[in-house]
Amino acid sequence: MRRDYDVIVLGGGAAGLLCAIEAGKRGRRVAVLERAERIGKKILISGGGRCNFTNLHCRPENFLSANPHFCKSALARYTPADFIALVEKHGIAYHENIKVSEVHRDSRFRVLSEGNELVAEALVVATGGLSIPKMGATAFGYDLARQFGLSIQACRPALVPLLWAAEERKHYGDLAGVSLDVIASTDGRRFREAMLFTHRGLSGPAILQISSYWQTGKAITIDLAPDADPLSPIRASPSHRDSLALKRALRSALPTRFADRWLALHSPERLPNAALDAFAAELHHWNITPVGDEGHDKAEVTAGGVDTSELSAKTMECRKVPGLYFIGEVVDVTGHLGGFNFQWAWASGYAAGQSV
Fold this sequence. Notes:
Blueprint: E1 2-10, H1 14-25, E2 30-33, H2 41-45, E3 63-64, H3 72-77, H4 80-89, E4 102-105, E5 109-113, E6 116-125, H5 140-147, E7 152-158, E8 162-163, H6 166-172, E9 179-186, E10 189-197, E11 201-203, H7 205-211, E12 220-223, H8 232-236, H9 243-253, H10 256-266, H11 273-284, E13 286-288, E14 292-293, E15 301-306, E16 324-326, E17 334-335, H12 340-353
Parallel strand pairs: 1-2, 1-6, 6-16
Antiparallel strand pairs: 3-17, 4-5, 5-6, 7-15, 8-11, 8-14, 9-10, 9-12, 10-11, 12-13
Helix pairs in contact: 1-12, 9-10
């Protein structure tokens, strides 16, 4: 059976749905094809079902890309306020789930799916990244880009927990559940948020943020007591310098379980000023080198994707293939934690929806 449309959108996630809405508002006949059994599934599970669907403080600086300027046009033309207004006004009542087997292009795009052929002048690829494969994530969008000769920035997990090396796992793995405020930094980037110990490594917002910039084999530096000098009570009482005083001082600044473990592993035998200074310096500059990350299974998003040099920053249309668009996570634009990736999905979907 052949069905004709003006636009076919591959992927019923955040970017694809917003694109379809905008194109439909312009009178275009739109088909949204989603391979998962439920449309918008990743939207619903993000943030444990209570996700940040945008961020009021969204700026280009909140996104990673080989070309940091690419996202500016789309984000400027569709702001968080625009999406909030849409949330307050609209609901989506109908959807269709379908798996795409092949895509061809002659004078128009031809999408083959389960015995059907859908034909349209425009094809929008909003298939998402590799994150959370159990939710249906695949490399289909990247494969399609390669089919049409487009370049891909290497894909990797982002916003993902990091894994201990064997020695650190032995020392800290049993502290799972302990959380504290830290500054995590690497390669000139730093984030001050909560860090969470897990059985396998480190997680929490600070670690998820820094993971997007971390590279295998590189160290990350963690300030365990930002803007604080836990040892100031000891410095103020030279006559009361002993291991018990040191324990009390550290417990006042850090979670008890972690403070005790840190002391067991790092406590100096003596407490002259030089030793205190060295102990304090290590608290503020804990260098660890993760052996890896939890992978796409646990990553919130995928960094990398369709190279932005292949796309128009205004419309998301491919420069080499007129009528072919890529939007959302499949593109090499990756946001920070906290609603930024949804805002990129809304903004890029809006940009394409205004053009197709």
